[in-house]
Amino acid sequence: MKLLRTVHPIGQGTFISERFIGADETDLAVVVYDCGSNNTTILKREISSSFGNIKEIDILFISHFDSDHVNGVRELLKNTKIKTVVVPLIDKKNRWFYLYQLGNERDVLLNPLDYFKAEKIIEVRPVSTNDVPTSNPNQRQESLRIDGIPPGNHTYSSGTAFSLNGLPRWSYRPYNFDESTRIAALESVLQNLKIDKKCLNDPAYIEGHYRKINDAYKKVCSDGANKSSLIVYSGPLYWECSIKTYMGCACTDCCTKAKHSSMDTFLTTDLLPQTICEKRIRAACLYLGDTDLNQMNSTTKMDILTDLCQYLSGVKDNIGTIQLPHHGARRNYNQKLPSSFPNAKIYFVSFGSSNIYGHPSNAIIGQLLAQGLQVVRVCNQRQTAFIEIIY
User: Fold this and answer.
1) What is the gyration radius of the CA atoms in the chain, in angstroms?
2) In whole angstroms, what is the distance from residue 123 CA to residue 128 CA?
3) Roughly how many angstroms between the first and final C-alpha of the chain, as a whole number?
4) What is the edge-to-edge ordering of all strands in the sheet holding 27-37?
5) Which end of the chain has fewer CB atoms surrounding its CB within 10 Å, N or C?
6) 100 to 91, 94, 126: CA distances (angstroms)
7) Rounded distance between C-alpha atoms, residue 174 and residue 287, angstroms
8) Which among 377, 368, 370 has a CA at the least distance from the CA of 341?
9) Cis peptide bond N-terminal to 360, omega within 30
10) With contact defined as beta carbons under 8 Å apart, do 287 and 33 qualify?
11) Within 13 A of 332's CA, how many CA atoms are on the CB side?
């Protein structure tokens, strides 16, 4: 069996897949983390190219509800059935915070079973002090077989380890960091502007008060509504697991080319330079979505990165690959990230090559390279796809 992990080149957004492939080259399981982009044309092309023959997705993780992370789901559903969707639990009284920005995709929050056409929806509760595991890494956490969960809506604690039938040693651990602080701030601004938050699911009301609502969101959420996201650990269930990983990346003149140049194997074509890198790294990946790693957790009073290290204490040494949060935005990066996960040698970032936000931050990329780490940039050009093959 092997795992094919792909960061798809869809521009400003996120679309990541993991395919577990058997000896006969058939799919044993397929897992997706986010499916959205500001460039829907490129996104549709990539879905058609990569998922044309895939008929079933076992788990779809949605990090948060920005359109550039969810607006490809309808396209994905045209030829593919989604069995289970895992999303952050949003308290009903706080859903107004997201409805304004979702536009035509509001049903992702209001009617998730219908929107995703899934057998089951798993909502992950915000982290609490009760979710912090023992600091003893030798204590094993058993996984919950997601196949055994009955159809319908279900709620689980952050940090629950889910596994798939036939893959007992591989787990997915989602963590939901809520946005209570920013929600409270936005609510206060809207009240001062005499905007009724209960009407933010009414398109007519939004149209009539668009300027005031937009100004309020810009004031409190200048970089988008979601500084928090569903963080997902994908990797071996137990801390002692170690798997040999082969990493293949096709790159042009991005910052990774200098790092690749010291590798042993090179493949070239008439169209673009390519590099196949083979190295032994840890097999697990940490998906960070649009998380602000500096944000204070309202429950524990520590920054999210510090909390995360505690929650993952039993498995964090398995992590060899990490997604840079929020498309490499400077404000979302925490300087302690590399030292917090010392076995992580590869960082990747997904962004639009013509985005207006300055993503990714070259200062962050430079810092990581200076520490001897590998940075892979994935944009809207097909040759920038990032693929890891884990045996």
Assistant:
1) 20
2) 15
3) 7
4) 152-156, 120-124, 81-88, 56-61, 27-37, 13-21, 2-7, 386-390, 245-249, 273-278, 266-268
5) C
6) 16, 12, 22
7) 9
8) 368
9) yes
10) yes
11) 25
Looking up tokens 């998906």 gives: 287
Q: Which residues, 6+ apart, have CB-to-CB distance to 223 below 8 Å?
A: 326, 329, 331, 357
Strand order in the sheet with 319-323: 144-145, 162-164, 167-176, 230-236, 284-287, 319-323, 346-350, 374-378
Q: pLDDT tens digits for 46-87?
A: 999 999 889 999 999 999 888 888 999 999 999 899 999 999
List of residues 6+ apart from 263 with CB closer than 8 A: 275, 277, 278, 279
- C-beta contacts of 188-191 below 8 A and 24+ residues apart: 189/216, 189/219, 189/220, 190/216
The DSSP string of 155-193 is: EE-TTPPEEETTEEEEEEEEEE---HHHHHHHHHHHHHT
pLDDT > 50? residue 281? yes
Place of tokens 């997706």: 32
E-assigned strand segments in the chain: 2-7, 13-21, 27-37, 56-61, 81-88, 120-124, 144-145, 152-156, 162-164, 167-176, 230-236, 245-249, 266-268, 273-278, 284-287, 319-323, 346-350, 374-378, 386-390
Task: Give backbone dihedrals phi and psi of 323, rounded to 5 degrees, phi first.
Answer: -85, 125
Contact 190, 100 (CB under 8 A): no
HSE (CB half, 13 Å, CA atoms) of 340? 20
In sequence order, the 6+-apart residues with CB closer than 8 A to the CB of 296 are 181, 302, 303, 304
pLDDT, tens only, 213-254: 878 877 776 555 445 689 999 998 865 444 455 454 544 444
Residue at 227: amino acid letter: K
Cβ–Cβ < 8 Å for 101, 201: no
Q: What are the tens digits of pLDDT across the range 282-327?
A: 889 999 999 989 987 766 778 999 999 999 988 999 999 999 999 9
Rounded Cα distance, 235 and 245, in Å: 12
Residue 71: in which H helix or E strand, if any?
A: none
What's the residue count for the chain? 391
pTM for this prediction? 0.85
Q: State mean pLDDT over 165-171.
A: 86
